[in-house]
Amino acid sequence: MSFNSDSELEVKVRKTTERISENMHIVANEPSLAFYRLQEHVRKALNPMVDRKVEVHKLYQELQGRCYDIEYGVCAIKSMENADESFKNIQNHLKNAIFLKQQLKYEESRKKKSDSSSVYKRLSAHITLDLPDLPEFSDVVRETANRVESMMSKATHSAN
Fold it and tell me: What is the spatial distance between Cα 108 and Cα 45, in angstroms, rounded to a whole number?
């Protein structure tokens, strides 16, 4: 039994010393292993991080540009709020101009109507008075004057 127990003890001591030696080796080499793992991690993670940083910087510049555009738009809208009175003034002037144009057009059409009808009436009146001896001829002239008058009135209406 003593022989058996010595061999068991020897095996246990050997295992224990191997574990202690292994642990000492790990503890002694731990800093270099840690640096190796850190270097490996940095090598794998650095390129994607740099790419992301470039992408974030690009997005930041685009965002700054859009913020500037928004500020410019807000300033433009605020300046348009002050233009309300000017637009009302322009609207009133346009209304007055349209009204005056309508008045001028009405006066012009009235003037043309009175001038054109009176000329033909005077013409036909003179012709009938000047030619009492020739009744057929005066009828022809009167009919021609009526036709000219109707053509002129049609032309005036189509021009308007």
Answer: 88
